[in-house]
Amino acid sequence: MTSLAQDVSIENVQMFLYHEATLLDEWRLEEWESLLTDDATYYVPPNDQPDGNHRNTLFTIADDRERIRQRVIRLMDPSCHAEFPHSRTRRMISNIQITERDGNELSVAANYVCYRFRRHERVREYVGSYKHRLVCTEDSFLIKERRVTVDAEELGSLGSVSFIL
Length: 165
Prior knowledge:
By secondary structure, the protein is α+β, with helices and mostly antiparallel strands. The chain is built from 3 helices and 6 strands. It has helices spanning 10-25, 29-33, 65-76; strands at 36-44, 61-63, 88-102, 105-117, 124-136, 141-150. Strands 2-1-6-5-4-3 form a 6-stranded mixed beta sheet. Strand 5 (124-136) and strand 6 (141-150) form a beta hairpin. The model has no long low-confidence stretch (mean pLDDT 91).
């Protein structure tokens, strides 16, 4: 018997990541949240330690499942002044690779560019890499871990990152 991860093609993974990007760009955060496992994590490490551990390094974001849920609720609330009206974003994802297959889990790496348009601000460009730990289901995937590295010398010029990268 083969594991689900062994049968997955790169095209399946690409389509999933493109779908995830669409949900985030369209602010369909509740739908995006449904792509997460019950123990999902979302990390944005500091740019000087992209492979650091959130337990002993100060991360920009180190959310467990409950914090992710609270983040989505907060971002969708019209009184969330940091994101109301919502920023407009457009993500470009490339260089998608399956880096490991382990049972029903996949490790996936990709590069991204995320353009952020916000009123009265210049266009911001976030460039970096994604590392996902995906759990294979019968017909798709669930996100167990999402790590977003931002390639920048310093983050101050990028403004507040109040949306989900």
